[in-house]
Here is the input.
Amino acid sequence: MKRSDWPTRIALGIAALLVAGACTQQAAAPSPSGSTPRPTGALVTAQPSSAGGLTSDGKILVRWFVGLGTGGNPEQLGAESAAVAKCNAADGPCTKANIKLALEVYQNDVAYDTLATQIATRNAPDIIGPIGVRALNGFGDQLLDLSKYVQAKTLDTAGIEKNLVDTYIVNGKQIGIPYAVYPSYMYYNKALFKEAGLKEPPHKVGDKYTMPNGSQVDWNWDTVAQVAKILTVDSKGNDATKAGFDAKNITQFGFDFQWTDPRGWATVIGGSGSAVAADGKTAQWPDNWKKAMQWYYDRLWKDHTAPTQDYITALAGGNTFQSGKVAMDFVHTWYTCCVYPGDNTSPVKDWDIAVAPISLDGKITAKLHADTMGILSSTLHADAAVLAMNFVMTQPEIVVTYGAMPAKAADRKAFFSALDKKFEKLNPTKIDWQVASSMLSYTESVNHEANLPNFLKSDAAIKQLQSDMLTNATLNIDTRVGDLVKSLQGTFGGN
Amino acid sequence: MMLTLARRESLWGLAFISPWILGALVFTLLPMGASFVISLTNFDPRYPDAVQSVGLANYQRLLTDPLVLQSLGVTVKFAALMLPLTLGVSLGLAMLVNNRRLLGRNVFRTLFYMPTQIPLVATTLIWQGVLNLHTGWLNSVLGLFGVGGPDWLNSTVWVYPGLSLISLWGTGTMMLIALAGLQSVPTELYEAARIDGAGKWAQFRNVTLPMVSPVLFYNLIIALIGTFQYFTQAYVLTNGRGDPDNATLFFNLNLYREGWRYYDMGYAATLAWLLFVIVLALTVVLFRTRSRWVYEGAAR
Here is the structure.
């Protein structure tokens, strides 16, 4: 080019930058369950009804709103639609009762706003669910008292532990019945353990872990920290125990806490606790939780064995275990939705599950998620809604697609068989599902997502701690937790 | 009675713009009125029956809410960086693609405009990858020169340049407007300037800038309003939290949080009115000072 061609050179340079920017790979955000950020949008929107909640052909319209817990993932839509079609079929229970069941599915991050808007415009659905503990904190007081249906056995609670049924008695109202439980445990990538020459973590509570030197040690969080160092590798192949380990170029991490928040971290690492004192109005962060925060922060920024925010974003858009670059990940049963979404899509070829490590308080604590379905008290057709809800809750394909371990113990065998079938072509290992069942005996005494005064703001303040821990390498955890408690006390007071 | 021609034309004109008038009434003025009424209540969409009037309590709260000042500070800081940058870059790009010596001018005009066609959420997600501390290509390129790239999105200092880069990627529309302005500058003015001995810089300063100043003024107003309404990028990058350490808690994001995270619609409506008043005041100031720095022809 000639000297006078400088405009073309500059333009080409800028164009190259534009093209390079456009060509950058950015993994799509995954679609897990619960309170996880996901792609925005409605998968199936509301159907119009005439006055009185009737369809144009005179049937009772029952609207089922999905998205407040699991169920809002595109891959779950097929099973939900199939269940609705089955109910609406000529010989289906809905048709026999002159009901038309209509499905509305929203992805989790828009579901709350959508439901609030529908309630505000007096266009609320009839059935909402599955809803987790968090969603109950937002909408629980809008739900219909189902006591009379439970007493009349229209809603079947046989075979469900009474304490689980009673969990959903709020202010004297039975606002739901247990539908699914999601115990948590350690997912681990067998291939990465094998590659590092490490023994796999224990599948039975009380079993020891065998370290590389042959010593038998307790399976606790200190052991996890040590093993995670060996499993964390930089771009030159050095693991985190080596002197030359480069923390700025890590290609594989020892472990992660995928899709949870500080109360989740604290409960599993530190043991049961609560951010509100027994008086229901004093903010606190118990000592075992403070220690847990420090422990995790050290893994993030001192050992570099757990991914910080920049790395989390780069690892499969946040679905870190599925990236194949995380050796251990502490998640719930619902993660079976997303650990292997389909053929030839995931680098995780060979995985299994292990029991929760012993918490810092000396006990095992495996945090629990639980889902229910409920009926909004604004419904015009409560009986019809109960009938339709009962049908949906008992459909096996729905249970499997939600990764929803049935609240009824008798139904669990079929559930695990269905999961085995789902994974048989994808994972050479038969997953040891007894681990999941066994963790139900070690759930926290206060749910890690339990209600707090002024919940939405209090929860946001706790999420801010999470964000700070994942992005700021220079935090003083004691000070930061102290600030959180002050902030919570303010929000508890209504500020 | 016969209508005069002028009256008939006025009526026809009103008839033709009546769809717009109707739209403005129904979709702008009515919601604004509703928003003002809501700002005087404690409206929570989950409890439509529990709505109560709170008088001016929400407006009083504005004065004591530290996040109002914080979010205004973030917005003003970003505006101070972004406004000159976007105006300068869009004008620079316009001059580049207006240059006669540029080969394939139309290709480059199209190429520079194209990013504006990509949905903002997609653009932001792409840039989230570009600006990643560990895996982003920007830091990889800096690394080739031995420069350790900053943590663009998680540093309270670097997040503003990071967001500016994202915004600059979408300056295509402003570039086109500036290009239209440049193309309307009469060539005789440049010829006269050259005869008078003006060099390139003098021509730019004394001919180009004054002649395109009305276009720059328009771009400034649009960019100012856009900056005060800045939301999508901050929301997508931080899931609405305003990370790091509230450094991206823009005014609009704070408004969104109050309204749609905490369902405090009354207070959110109050924040919206504060935003309206601020933007209106700034726009009025710009219009009032326009005559000092915008060239509007010899007729003035």
User: Anything to note?
Assistant: Chain B touches chain A at residues 45-46, 48, 93, 96-97, 99, 101-104, 108, 111-112, 114-115, 118, 121, 125-130, 132-137, 151, 153-154, 169, 238-239, 241, 243-245, 257, 260-263 (CB under 8 Å). Chain B has 13 helices and no strands. The radius of gyration of chain B is 24 Å. The mean pLDDT of chain B is 93.
